[in-house]
Amino acid sequence: MTRVALIAHDDKKSTMIDLVQEYEAVLSSFDLVATGTTGQRIMAEADLDVERKESGPVGGDTQIGAEVVEGRLDGIVFLQDPMTAQPHEPDIGALMRICNVHDVPLATCRSAGEYVVRGLARDEETRRQSA
Ligand SMILES: O=C(CO)COP(=O)(O)O
Fold it and tell me: What Gene3D superfamilies does the record tag this protein with (predicted)?
């Protein structure tokens, strides 16, 4: 099953909620993982089940990065706030780097996130049809 990570900085959490509500039908067919607070909000505000890691600043981004290394993730939607410095910037940079190392698609704004979600849904549909 397609496994996707959802992460949003505080100022982008409402955008993430909007995105997951719009794509709820597609996302409900995926295996979802999220950083702590993002996951909490998604489960409260959308009809989606999400595996929650730690919050980003205390290691959640790093835990998602470990899944990338282990080959468990097909894509990441990570809505970043470009206007606010983050205390865990090194962790964020490490997650982005490891996605590049392992060629895992990482979307950092809403429109790119929609492309990733739609693309992964199309891939899953293609796999289902050829199975
Ligand atoms: O800080 C984050 C990503 O860098 C997100 O963490 P939370 O989802 O716990 O807010």
Answer: Methylglyoxal synthase-like domain
Domain parsing of the chain, residue ranges: 3-82+104-130
pLDDT (tens, 9 = 90+) of the chain, 131 residues, equals: 999 999 999 999 999 999 999 999 999 999 999 999 999 999 999 999 999 999 999 999 999 999 999 999 999 999 999 999 999 999 999 999 999 999 999 999 999 999 999 999 999 999 999 98
H-helix or E-strand spanning residue 78: strand 75-79
The response to whether 35 counts as a known ligand-binding position is yes
Distance of alpha carbon 97 from alpha carbon 64, whole angstroms: 12
What is the pTM for the complete model shown? Answer: 0.97
Q: Is 56 annotated as a binding residue?
A: yes
Superfamily of domain 3-82+104-130: Methylglyoxal synthase-like domain (3.40.50.1380)
> Does residue 56 have its Cβ closer than 6 Å to ligand 1?
yes
Q: Which atom of ligand 1 is nearest to the CA of 78?
A: 3
